[in-house]
Sequence to fold (182 residues):
Amino acid sequence: NYLGPCDLVASKDGKTVYVANANAEQIAFVDIYSGKVSHSICVPGEPSGVALSPDGEKLYVTCAAAQSTVVVMDVASGSVKVTIAAGHTAMGPAVTPDGKRLYVCNRFNNEVSVIDLEADKELARAPTTREPVAAAVTPDGKLALAANHLPADRADGYDVAAVVTVIETETHQATAIRLPNG
Fold:
């Protein structure tokens, strides 16, 4: 049975890797030194991305679907604390350095959800160019970045380039950085 590992993140102490297994709809806790799965936690859908809170106590898991969810999991107990609604095919979660917000790519909505982690709800959605699949937040927390999987250009044109969407975390305003052709 293929579990379908698709994303992972290491614990703060470097002893455990949390692996999102899409086909098995679970998060596996893998002991790095023994190479064995200590335990697995089922999630309510196909996990598509994982991010760890800055303090290492919470795991944020995107579960991709037409009406996706973000699962907030307590690392110590493995229990699911809350689920938060997200957009179509949520993936690529990225948490701010202060742990207050989570940015989630909604691939087929062409948006990034801005989630307030203290209130456990979506605050806003920032538009992207086309199919955001991965996100990151700058170390100062002022910008969130989203990699767009596909360009908005015509496929038969000479200059076809994807973009990175830059989102100002204060205002949720989005701009695009065009990548080189191809």
Summary: The chain has no helices and 16 strands. The mean pLDDT is 95.
